[in-house]
Amino acid sequence: MNRKAPSLTANAGLHKLANLGISLLAGAWFTTAQGATAVPPKSAPAKAPATAQTPSPGQTPAPAPNTASRLEKIGEALFNDPALSEPRGTACLNCHLPGTGFANNNGSRAGVALGSTANSLGTRNAMANFYSHLAPPFSFRVVGEDVDPQGGLFWDGRADTLNAQALAPLLNAKEMNNRTAASVVAKVAKASYARDFLAEFGPNIFKSPDLAFQKIGVAIAAFESRSTPTRFSSKYDHFIRGTVQLAPDEARGMAIFRDPERGNCAVCHTMNPTSADPKDSLFTDFAFYAEGIPRNPKIPANANPSRFDLGVCGPDRSRPALPPNVPGNVSIERFCGTFKMPSLRNVAQRQAFMHNGVFTKLRDVVSFYATRNSDPKRWYGPAGVPNDLPTAYLPNILRDRVPFNRPAQAGPALTGPEIDDLVAFLGTLSDGFQPPQR
Ligand code: HEC
Ligand code: HEC
After folding, report:
1. At what angle do helices 162-171 and 209-225 cross, to 10 degrees?
2. Is the shortest distance between the CB of 269 and ligand 2 below 6 Å?
3. Which ligand is closest to the CA of 156, given by its number?
4. Does the domain made of 65-225 have the CATH classification 1.10.760.10?
5. Strands annotated E in 332-398
6. Vertex 103 angle, CA 292 and 134, to 5°
7. Relative to the alpha carbon of 367, which ligand is closest?
8. Residues 120, 79, 22, 357, CA torsion sign
């Protein structure tokens, strides 16, 4: 996976990155296999080749040269700082590495993230944070009788803004494990970027730890929302801009992805290949569904057979109130077991999939979609019944649309070669694609 790193960096150079802009990438690649972050070199080489000045005809020009603001640079320094965990060693970056699809579980292979202390395996798979700034706040989408939760951050949508989200891992015992906001602020006050922090937020900021803590969230959110030239730089993005063609298997995969009778993936993972604006192809509309994901036995908390992650219904959040426009016969119980649909951008780089990280191969994810109904024993064991929700919530699992609406006797929804094609197509969604030189 990490072997993809140089191409991203090289591509960044092509896009006229200024010295500062590349440090997101440089910081990310200097990471050991365990996920421990080493200090990146102070100035990564980012000389733009002369050709980058003149985009070839028909090519959408690269985003403006990367001039990160001071606020964004502080946010980046905070994001990459392994001193902000207790004990030190776990930065945000350790769980959100560009080389592994902006996710990663801090070196854990259990499918869920390992925090800064030993035995701190959590209960959820790290999510990619590279496109998170595009998620709307949590709400309920009501279209006639159809109601779906949507938006927010985290698998259960419990944070509405990146600012608020960023503060959670700092204080989560299973992640960065700081006891108090003040202890985080004390670490920031001693950091190399403390001077910039003072310049940005005023000379007295460290004297108000609560306010300073909020500002940490503001800076990290600014960094995460910064428009970088590596965003929307996948082969698919080049394809919709007309600068590259998909290979035959990738093109077949895209057709299956969009075909309402076969993959039907695009009905949820929204895309529009006829629009040259990549924001029309986020591969999610941030809606929540219960797919009947198999239980992950590697999660230590799952040793307790009556422990379930119900997503929108907790236990990591309080159940949200339904708004008045939701039909009266719909209760929150109907959404227990639903999780936010992630974008599929950079998904091929990730090492674990779904909210509980139960799958470690992309092909297994696609095979699950193809055979959940026809071969349930493969996924749920001898009983062949979805095994990661209490019986009362099994009716919440999707059964009313392709590929999940097939009777078992109808066989797999997709053939082996179709699964391969879908996996090939998903591979076109990884940022940092370098179009062949003409
Ligand atoms: C130990 C691993 C770990 C660390 C460290 C970590 N995260 Fe995460 N991150 C996760 C996991 C796991 C989730 C999903 C958690 C959930 O749904 O409850 C997540 C979710 C997120 C999301 C939500 C993405 C979305 O689209 O909904 C963002 C943004 C994010 N993290 C940013 C950060 C920031 C900023 C930091 C540092 C302050 C950080 N993370 C530190 C593991 C980690
Ligand atoms: C009904 C809406 C829906 C449809 C249809 C759908 N998905 Fe998904 N997809 C989701 C949701 C929701 C999740 C997250 C589920 C969870 O973790 O509980 C998800 C997760 C994924 C993931 C894992 C992403 C990650 O980062 O962990 C992949 C890959 C994926 N879907 C591919 C596909 C493909 C390929 C198809 C078509 C065969 C498809 N999906 C059809 C809603 C959908």
Report:
1. 120
2. yes
3. 1
4. yes
5. 339-340
6. 85
7. 2
8. positive
Question: Each residue of 85-136: pLDDT tens digit?
Answer: 999 999 999 999 999 999 999 999 999 999 999 989 999 999 999 999 999 9
Per-residue pLDDT of 190-225, as tens digits, reads 999 999 999 999 999 999 999 999 999 999 999 999
CA distance 325 to 323: 6
| Confidence grade of residue 67 (pLDDT, cut at 50, 70, 90) | confident
Instruction: Identify the three-state secondary structure at position 108.
Output: coil
End-to-end CA distance of the chain: 27
Ligand 1 and 160: CB distance under 6 A: no
Cα-to-centroid distance, 285 and ligand 2 (Å): 11
Name the residue of 119, 127, 171, 183 whose CB sits within 8 Å of the most ligand 1 atoms, as the mutation to test its pocket. 127
Which ligand is located closest to the Cα atom of residue 222?
Answer: 1
Longest dimension (CA), the chain: 70
CA of 104 to the centre of ligand 1 (A): 10
